[in-house]
Amino acid sequence: MTDLPGDNPPGPGESADAGSAAGGSAGAAGGAGSASAGSPYEPEELVQQDGMGVPDPFLRLWTPHRMAYIAGENKPTSTSSGDDCPFCRIPSLPDADGLIVHRGPAAYAVLNLYPYNPGHLMIVPYRHVADYTDLTPEEVSDVATLTRQAMQAVRIASAAHGFNIGMNQGEIAGAGIAAHLHQHVVPRWGGDTNFMPVVAQTKVLPQLLTDTRALLTKSWPTP
């Protein structure tokens, strides 16, 4: 992990100019803001970046992939069906490319591209429909069946302690893609809400989506 410096108050007897002139090693050498000697979180070398002041001891966890979500990548520009809707387009892709875990007769299970937790699935009807009350009896049945199977698969694969399951109906309710109905299945574990999402609005995910998909596909129960 690369550490980029930021401003840090000089330690006792140390001027900011002296720390800047001496480079990264002098800036890390001891000041009130330096990491404790022998700390497992202490970077081996604090790199001085021109114009950024005295290096500090903090490690940075960069998550640039989140900017795609913030900037609205893959979000439809219209409410119509077709290739502009990701949930309409995904079933036309190979399962591995679309991150599809399982296909049912009227709906499919797919990994969330921006997961809240590892194994975050969505159950999506093939038909481009916005409201749960507009689903056919067959679609309702398939969404329910895939939801149950998704829970079973995640419990087999990763022993989830619980789940958050639900739909956001309409943009006002928080639906990112309101025009195409989708139900979230979010696995939960004790302690999975820690300081990272609470303080830093950052989620640390231990596994690539392609590996998660392979694991869940293998664990999907046989009907």
Helix content: 25-40%
Shape verdict? globular
**So, the CATH homologous superfamily of the largest domain?**
HIT-like
Residue share in β-strands = 5-15%
Overall mean pLDDT stands at 75
Question: Mind summarizing the main beta sheet?
Answer: 5 strands, antiparallel
Give the name of the CATH architecture of the largest domain. 2-Layer Sandwich
| SSE string, helices as H and strands as E | HHHHHEEEHEEHH
Strand neighbour order, sheet with most strands: 1-2-3-5-4
Given this structure, which CATH class of the largest domain is correct? Alpha Beta
Total beta strands: 5
Task: List descriptors.
single chain, 223 residues, alpha+beta, HIT family, subunit A, 2 domains, five-stranded antiparallel sheet, 8 helices, 29% helix, globular, disordered N terminus, nucleotidyltransferase, ATP adenylyltransferase, nucleotide-binding
Descriptive notes:
This protein has 223 residues and is of the alpha+beta class. It folds into 2 domains: 1-60, no CATH class; 79-219, HIT-like (HIT family, subunit A, 2-Layer Sandwich). The protein has a 5-stranded antiparallel β-sheet with strand order 1-2-3-5-4. Helix 6 crosses helix 8. 29% of the residues lie in helices and 11% in strands. The protein contains 8 helices and 5 strands. It has helices at residues 16-22, 24-28, 66-70, 86-89, 95-98, 137-158, 195-200, 209-219, and strands spanning 100-103, 107-111, 121-125, 162-166, 183-188.
